Structure formats: C-alpha cells, structure tokens
C-alpha cells in the first residue's frame, strides 16, 4: 500500500477504522523529512496490512498543533485507535522496521486494560 495524505477531516476516521496506522508529520522544507520519505514509502510497500499516512504540517497546522507536534519529522503509531508510539526524528529503515514489529506485537488486551486502569485513577 502506498502512503496516503491525511487531513484534519479524515485523520480521526483513518485512525479509528484501521487496526494499525503510522503517521508521518512532515513539511516540504524539512531536510530530514525529505530524507525519511523514501524509507517510509518503502516500508509501506513491505507492510500492506499497515496504513501509512502522511500529514503535511504546513497545510494542516491545526491538526499538527492538536497532535502536539513540535519537531518534524515526527512519527506516530496507532493501534486499535490508541496512540502507542510517538517520536520526533527521521528513523533509519531498521529503526522503522523495529517500530512496526513492536506495534504489531503489542498485546492490545493488556494495553486497553492499562488505559482503563489509568482512567479509573483519574480524579473526577
């Protein structure tokens, strides 16, 4: 699967309707973003079971702000609608592969149970 451009309008539906979604927050003027793009594209071809989304932070400034993006590129990974990874900086191919493998290997029952525990501990 090729990467898909994601906007504020389709960001939430993309995350909610797919099991695993990686999101690359980038900008055309960013050198490290341009260096990471071919690595990200190659990984998208290798993992057709994962959605590889891209958010242009210049065109989607409100979405980038809502996501707390302060440095680009930033890679986020969502599994079952839950943010499970977020890291600024361009990853090498091996590093991106490690992230994908780790996200695929998560025990989501455990993740959801931990989220429920954290929410229960929040003051009302």
Your description of this structure?
By secondary structure, this protein is an alpha/beta fold. It has one domain: Glutaredoxin (3-Layer(aba) Sandwich), CATH 3.40.30.10. It is 46% helix and 23% strand. It is built from five helices and five strands, in the order βαβαβαββαα. The protein has helices spanning 8-16, 31-46, 61-66, 93-104, 108-121, and strands at 4-5, 20-26, 51-56, 74-79, 82-88. The chain has a five-stranded mixed β-sheet with strand order 1-3-2-4-5. Strand 4 (74-79) and strand 5 (82-88) form a beta hairpin. The radius of gyration is 15 Å and the shape is globular. The model has no long low-confidence stretch (mean pLDDT 94). It holds the Pfam family Thioredoxin.
Attribute tags:
Thioredoxin, Glutaredoxin, alpha/beta, 5 strands, Thioredoxin_CS, five-stranded mixed β-sheet, protein-disulfide reductase activity, 124 residues, disulfide bond, globular
Brief sketch in words of this structure:
This protein is α/β, with parallel strands linked by helices and 124 residues long.
Structural class: alpha/beta
Tally of individual domains: 1
SSE series: EHEHEHEEHH
The coarse silhouette is: globular
N→C terminal distance: 43 Å
Number of helices: 5
Spatial strand arrangement across the major sheet: 1-3-2-4-5
Q: What is the CATH top level name? A: Alpha Beta
Rg, rounded, reads: 15 Å
Strand content: 15-25%
Q: Which residues form runs of ≥5 with pLDDT under 50?
A: none
Mean pLDDT: 94
As an assembly, this protein is single chain
Number of strands: 5
Named at the architecture level, the CATH assignment is: 3-Layer(aba) Sandwich
Fraction of residues in H or I helices:
40-55%
> What is the CATH H-level superfamily?
Glutaredoxin
Major sheet:
5 strands, mixed
């Amino acid at each position: 699967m090729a990467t898909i451009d994601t906007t504020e309008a389709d960001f939430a539906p993309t995350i909610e309707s797919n099991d695993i979604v990686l999101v690359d927050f980038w900008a055309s003027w960013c050198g490290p973003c341009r260096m990471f793009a071919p690595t990200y594209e190659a990984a998208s071809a290798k993992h057709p079971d994962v959605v590889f989304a891209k958010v242009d932070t210049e065109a989607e400034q409100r979405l980038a702000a809502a996501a707390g993006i302060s440095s680009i590129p930033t890679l986020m990974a969502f599994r079952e609608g839950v943010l499970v990874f977020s890291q600024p900086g361009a990853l090498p191919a091996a590093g991106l592969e490690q992230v994908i493998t780790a996200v695929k290997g998560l025990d989501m029952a455990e993740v959801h149970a931990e989220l429920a525990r954290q929410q229960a501990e929040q003051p009302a």
